[in-house]
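From the shared-data thread, chain only:
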Amino acid sequence: MNTELQSFIQKYDLLGCVQCGRCTGGCPVTVRTNLNVRRIVYDSINESMLEDLAKLPEIWDCTTCNTCAVRCPKGLKPVEVLIGLRNIMVESGIIQPTVRDALESVFREGNPWNKPKARRSDWMEGLEVKIAEPGKKVENLIFVCCTIAYDPKVQVIAKNLVKVLNKAGVDYGFIGDDEVCCGSEVYAMGELGEEGLFEMLVEDNTELFNSYEAERIVAISPHCYSVFKNQYPDLKAEVIHYTQLLKELLADNKLELKKELSQKIVFHDPCYLGKQNNIFDEPRYILSQIPGVELVEFDRSRERSLCCEGGGGKMWVESESRKERLAEIRVKDADELGATLLAVACPFCVLTFDDAIKAKGLEEKMRVAEITEILGEAVE
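Structure, as C-alpha cells:
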C-alpha cells in the first residue's frame, strides 16, 4: 500500500465503514444521479481505484448536505471522502471550468463570483450601516457572505438585517470591504492541503477577525457560520448565526413586531444550519412571533430536510442529470401544504427555490423569502 493511499484511508477512517448502505439510502441526490456513496467509500480502499474514483463525474453531484454523516451508525463522514476525491482532481487541474473560475476568483478578488473586491459593500448605499473598527469593542461583528454582498436577488437579506438591528438598538458593526470569502464552498470544491486556498483563507480571516474586539461573530449565511464554527480553531470570538441573535432579541422583548402578516408559511431547514449544526428551533421561533402567521411543517423537516442542491459548490458545478431537481420537489411539497410563503435562512436556498418556483409555474401561488426579509416586513 503506497503512502498516499494509506494516508487517505487513515484520514477518513475508511476501514471503519461496515458497508451498511445507510449513507446511500439517505442521500437525497441518489434519486436523480448515479452517486453511490457506499460504493465510493468501499472502493476508496483499493489503491488501484483511487485515481479512477476521483475522475467519476458523480462525485460532483454531492451537495455536502451531511445526510450521510447523520445516518452513519459508525459516526463516519462519507461526505469528507468525496471532498477528498475532489481535492485529487483540483490538484491535478482536471476540473470543470466553472469550478476553476470560481476558485481563481476567490484567490484574486476574495469572492467566487468574479466581482471586484472594492465593490463588496455597494449594497450598503443609502442605509445607516455601522462599520466596525479594528481594536474597538463591538458586541456583534457581522459577516455578510459573498453571495449576499454581490447578488442583487439576495442583497435584501443584509439590508433587512440592518433595518432590524437598528430598530432593536443592537451594538453591531459590519466589516465592509475588508471582508473576503469564508472558504466554505472552496473547501467543498476540494481546494485543500496545507498550502491550499482554503487554508490561506482560514489564516487570513482569523487574523482579520481577531483584530476586532468583538464578543461574537454573527454570520448571515449558514455556510459561513458552519465553516467559522467548525473549521476556524483560533477565533477569539464566539460564532453564532443571525437567527440565534434575532431569537434573543425577540425573547428579550428588544424587537417589537407590529405588522400582521396573513401568510401560511412553511420553513425549509438549510442543510448547513440544521443537519450540519443542529439549529432547528430558532428560525421557527422567529416566524412564530410574527402576528397573523400560520406556520406549517414539511413532512421531511429538521434532520430529514430535503436538500435544495445549492451547497457543496453546486452553484458552480454543472449537473449532467436532467431529472427533476430536489428544489422543484420541495416547492411542490410546499404547494401541497397550501403554503403561500416558503421561508428559508440561507441565500443559496433563496436562489434555488426561486428558480424552482418559476420552473413549476407557481409564481402566482407562493414566493420564497429569507427570514430577515419576512421580519423586515413585520417591523415596518
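Strands lie at 137-143, 172-174, 213-219, 238-241, 264-267, 294-296, 341-344, 367-370.
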